[in-house]
């Protein structure tokens, strides 16, 4: 195993220093280190973050390997500065058995670019009728702790209650896609002024807020853990604030796109901007940003949702919802939050690692800590070229935009997965 000496890097909240990485861990931290056998990386001007952790990634394998594979998605993640991703269960077959989650987990190990932590489905086939084998998935080699029917809402309150009760035994968490299905039938975009003008069926904010309100009450009632996926409205923030003030065990995520883009993008009728939940208003974006800074929203999660060209480059009404996120998330966070590195580390690494129970991740470099970290050049600017992305899909909403910040290197347990901004394998 090669040792690496990272020279003159800025740790979060500290003065430039050197890091020596050896045998998978951070061996030494301090100015003026030397090691004859180490490969030296001049990191002047770079920031060292704990490796990013994504609570919400769609890797599409098994079933839609044309859109993404565990390997291609892992490479996109590493290039985005991630060292761990949680893979959503809406694959084909659905990840609702120990067999499927173990398959995804093994594929992640084989790719060896990030730790792939499978999420298990809450209900069999995501059909919302019967609980899946949550215990068997938790006991499997994949050690599943997060369960989600993402893509679908666990709409039946009795099933949701039973799922919350069930996962308490192993400190699991239910990650809810909050969408009251009866309020979003045929919905194409956010319900508001723009949808009225365009004549597209609206997805009202209340369809999200009503489910979050119900679920925080259920979580409180049974004393279990709830995580809310892709929060998108100002009203949801108020419900979460209220629940947290009451001590409910609820955490929440926001995506980069909901922090940056608004429903006005739909005016282009470009389906790249079609996503679930839909892009909302500028007032919602402002509320989400404030909630993220304040901690009412705990983490940024990408909801990286690759789709094949034929599912995306078609009429708006027929296009699948979802956009890529892994390779651009840090740049969007930097744009939205500014160079508040401690806040970025908190929202994109430390807190998501804690929610997922990934004990080797989300740790700032210190002697003996697993060397999961990423080096960022905050001054670099790059133009996003969809064809140059590592993802197998091209549905980025940032095509040809100039973004600030670039991942220079990522280390997974001391081994580089990215060097000089390029994937190592
Ligand atoms: N976000 C999306 O618009 N799509 C996701 C499903 C989801 O996250 O709900 C997908 O799987 O494509
Ligand atoms: Zn979802
Ligand atoms: Zn999703």
UniProtKB/TrEMBL annotation:
<comment type="similarity">
    <text>Belongs to the metallo-dependent hydrolases superfamily. DHOase family. Class I DHOase subfamily.</text>
</comment>
<dbReference type="InterPro" id="IPR002195">
    <property type="entry name" value="Dihydroorotase_CS"/>
</dbReference>
<feature type="binding site">
    <location>
        <position position="177"/>
    </location>
    <ligand>
        <name>Zn(2+) 2</name>
    </ligand>
</feature>
<dbReference type="GO" id="GO:0005737">
    <property type="term" value="C:cytoplasm"/>
</dbReference>
<feature type="active site">
    <location>
        <position position="303"/>
    </location>
</feature>
<dbReference type="InterPro" id="IPR032466">
    <property type="entry name" value="Metal_Hydrolase"/>
</dbReference>
<dbReference type="InterPro" id="IPR011059">
    <property type="entry name" value="Metal-dep_hydrolase_composite"/>
</dbReference>
<feature type="binding site">
    <location>
        <position position="56"/>
    </location>
    <ligand>
        <name>Zn(2+) 1</name>
    </ligand>
</feature>
<dbReference type="GO" id="GO:0006145">
    <property type="term" value="P:purine nucleobase catabolic process"/>
</dbReference>
<feature type="binding site">
    <location>
        <position position="303"/>
    </location>
    <ligand>
        <name>Zn(2+) 1</name>
    </ligand>
</feature>
<dbReference type="GO" id="GO:0044205">
    <property type="term" value="P:'de novo' UMP biosynthetic process"/>
</dbReference>
<feature type="binding site">
    <location>
        <position position="150"/>
    </location>
    <ligand>
        <name>Zn(2+) 1</name>
    </ligand>
</feature>
<keyword id="KW-0378">Hydrolase</keyword>
<feature type="binding site">
    <location>
        <begin position="321"/>
        <end position="322"/>
    </location>
    <ligand>
        <name>substrate</name>
    </ligand>
</feature>
<dbReference type="GO" id="GO:0004038">
    <property type="term" value="F:allantoinase activity"/>
</dbReference>
<comment type="function">
    <text>Catalyzes the reversible cyclization of carbamoyl aspartate to dihydroorotate.</text>
</comment>
<protein>
    <recommendedName>
        <fullName>Dihydroorotase</fullName>
        <ecNumber>3.5.2.3</ecNumber>
    </recommendedName>
</protein>
<feature type="domain" description="Dihydroorotase catalytic">
    <location>
        <begin position="47"/>
        <end position="234"/>
    </location>
</feature>
<dbReference type="Pfam" id="PF12890">
    <property type="entry name" value="DHOase"/>
</dbReference>
<dbReference type="GO" id="GO:0004151">
    <property type="term" value="F:dihydroorotase activity"/>
</dbReference>
<feature type="binding site">
    <location>
        <position position="150"/>
    </location>
    <ligand>
        <name>Zn(2+) 2</name>
    </ligand>
</feature>
<feature type="binding site">
    <location>
        <position position="90"/>
    </location>
    <ligand>
        <name>substrate</name>
    </ligand>
</feature>
<dbReference type="InterPro" id="IPR004722">
    <property type="entry name" value="DHOase"/>
</dbReference>
<feature type="binding site">
    <location>
        <begin position="58"/>
        <end position="60"/>
    </location>
    <ligand>
        <name>substrate</name>
    </ligand>
</feature>
<keyword id="KW-0479">Metal-binding</keyword>
<feature type="binding site">
    <location>
        <position position="58"/>
    </location>
    <ligand>
        <name>Zn(2+) 1</name>
    </ligand>
</feature>
<dbReference type="GO" id="GO:0008270">
    <property type="term" value="F:zinc ion binding"/>
</dbReference>
<feature type="binding site">
    <location>
        <position position="307"/>
    </location>
    <ligand>
        <name>substrate</name>
    </ligand>
</feature>
<keyword id="KW-0665">Pyrimidine biosynthesis</keyword>
<comment type="pathway">
    <text>Pyrimidine metabolism; UMP biosynthesis via de novo pathway; (S)-dihydroorotate from bicarbonate: step 3/3.</text>
</comment>
<dbReference type="InterPro" id="IPR050138">
    <property type="entry name" value="DHOase/Allantoinase_Hydrolase"/>
</dbReference>
<keyword id="KW-0862">Zinc</keyword>
<feature type="binding site">
    <location>
        <position position="230"/>
    </location>
    <ligand>
        <name>Zn(2+) 2</name>
    </ligand>
</feature>
<feature type="binding site">
    <location>
        <position position="276"/>
    </location>
    <ligand>
        <name>substrate</name>
    </ligand>
</feature>
<dbReference type="InterPro" id="IPR024403">
    <property type="entry name" value="DHOase_cat"/>
</dbReference>
